[in-house]
């Protein structure tokens, strides 16, 4: 900003009432542009960025000042806000000149008046932004200075499985049961064992214990045949094809005796009998013999054979279900590289919206001076507002073009 200071010194203006600085974000630029008064932009050409500055300004008119060589291109234009200066313009300058009862104004200097400096809306950044290129959905907390250094705390969306609280359910399985409940297996289960309240663990295929269950077997007494290891003594009447009722120890039944042999000499002194039940099963043998003046009979009859067999398994299961929870897992805080790149464990990921970070054009900025009354005096001294230096030489574009014909 040495040139402006030299002008001020040459004009003999005091600096006690002057403040100065540099702009570094769009919010600050828009604020300065909308200071009250007229904006005079002295530029070598009207660039798209210069037009953008004039469009952002809503506090008053904007007048462009061009050198004669550039002004010829605009002859025939309807733009009445262009003035023509003699000579050349080495460096863009802007003057916001106060009006009314104040002479306070602002001087702007720098290539940022005709070139986009690549600034963000605000130089200080502290906000959540997205992340692309990561293996999972990600986000970043970006903070720092757009024109300085930015850091990004990187977080990835992570889904984690965990075991929830046990869920109790009751089941009744028909024998033979394989010991499986939903997606888990009863560890140590024996299908033919009769359980009476024993508790066993429930395990999934991968070996993870998911809970436990209590087993209670339902049973039934089932007839399976004839118990030839035992007999009941019958002493009632026997005869060929004679039926009788008897309880051999397993309940009252009806039997039939069939004579299979006899010993007879002047009469039969002995007869042998096979004993059958009504199903035709052999159940034992008996005999009849002469005992004094009486005929005595007796038989040894096998009882039925019963077993206690399992019919169902009652299962009270307490199973811990697999659940999922999703959370942002912090990967760390990393510096943001040019173009919005952040490197995490050697992998480069992009932060969308920061593509322009670190790629600002070099030397493109805007410096400013604010003071009273030097800006208005400077404008008049340069002839922009009726001063002496360019009196009669700063002309409207229409007049300049008319004199060229």
What are the defining features of this structure?
Endonuclease, Chain A; disordered N terminus; 6 helices; rod-shaped; 405 residues; 8-stranded mixed beta sheet; 4 domains; mainly beta
Q: How would you characterize this protein structure?
A:
This protein is mainly beta and 405 residues long. The protein has four domains: 2-119 and 360-404, Endonuclease, Chain A; 124-162 and 326-350, no CATH class; 165-223 and 309-320; 228-302, no CATH class. Helices cover 12% and strands 48% of the residues. The protein has helices at 2-11, 26-33, 48-56, 68-71, 374-381, 397-404, and strands spanning 19-22, 38-42, 62-67, 82-85, 93-97, 105-109, 124-131, 138-145, 150-163, 167-174, 180-181, 184-186, 196-203, 209-226, 232-234, 242-246, 253-264, 268-277, 282-291, 294-301, 304-319, 322-337, 341-344, 347-350, 367-371, 395-396. The strands form four sheets. Strands 1-25-6-5-2-3-4-26 form an eight-stranded mixed β-sheet. Strands 7-8-9-22-23-24 form a six-stranded antiparallel β-sheet, with no helix packed on it. Strands 10-21-14-13-12-11 form a six-stranded antiparallel β-sheet, with no helix packed on it. A hairpin with a 7-residue loop joins β5 (93-97) and β6. The model is unreliable at 1-16 (pLDDT under 50).
């Amino acid at each position: 900003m040495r040139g402006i200071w030299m002008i001020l010194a040459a004009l003999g203006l005091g600096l006690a009432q002057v403040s100065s600085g540099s702009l570094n974000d769009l919010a600050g630029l828009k604020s300065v542009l909308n200071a009250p008064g007229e904006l005079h932009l002295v530029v070598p050409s009207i660039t798209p960025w210069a037009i953008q500055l004039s469009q952002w300004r809503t506090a008053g008119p904007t007048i462009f000042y061009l050198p004669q060589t550039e002004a010829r291109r605009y002859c025939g234009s309807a733009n009445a806000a262009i003035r023509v200066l003699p000579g050349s313009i080495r460096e863009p300058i802007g003057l916001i000149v106060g009006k009314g009862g104040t002479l306070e104004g602002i001087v702007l200097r720098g290539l940022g008046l005709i070139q986009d400096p690549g600034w963000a809306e605000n130089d200080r950044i502290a906000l959540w932004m997205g992340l692309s290129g990561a293996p999972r959905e990600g986000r970043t907390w970006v903070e720092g200075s757009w024109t300085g250094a930015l850091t990004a705390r990187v977080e990835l969306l992570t889904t984690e499985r965990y075991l929830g609280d046990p869920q109790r359910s009751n089941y009744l399985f028909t024998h033979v049961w394989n010991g499986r409940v939903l997606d888990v297996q009863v560890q140590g289960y024996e299908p033919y064992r009769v359980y009476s309240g024993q508790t066993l663990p429930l395990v999934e295929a991968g070996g993870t214990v998911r809970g436990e269950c209590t087993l209670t077997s339902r049973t039934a007494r089932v007839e399976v045949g004839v118990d030839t290891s035992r007999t009941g003594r019958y002493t009632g009447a026997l005869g060929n094809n004679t039926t009788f009722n008897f309880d051999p120890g397993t309940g009252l039944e009806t039997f039939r005796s069939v004579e299979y042999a006899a010993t007879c000499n002047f009469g039969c002194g002995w007869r042998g009998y096979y004993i059958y039940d009504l199903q035709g099963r052999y159940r034992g043998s008996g005999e009849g013999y002469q005992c004094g003046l009486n005929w005595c009979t007796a038989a040894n009859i096998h009882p039925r054979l019963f077993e206690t067999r399992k019919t169902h398994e009652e299962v009270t299961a307490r199973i811990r279900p697999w659940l999922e929870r999703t959370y942002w897992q912090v990967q760390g805080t990393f510096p943001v590289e040019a173009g919005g790149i952040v490197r995490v464990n050697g992998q480069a990921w992009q932060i969308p919206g920061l593509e322009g970070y670190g790629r600002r054009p070099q030397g493109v900025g805007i410096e400013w001076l604010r003071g009273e009354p030097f800006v208005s005096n400077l404008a008049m001294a340069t002839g922009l507002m009726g001063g002496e230096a360019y009196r009669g030489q700063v002309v409207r574009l229409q007049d300049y073009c008319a004199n060229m014909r």
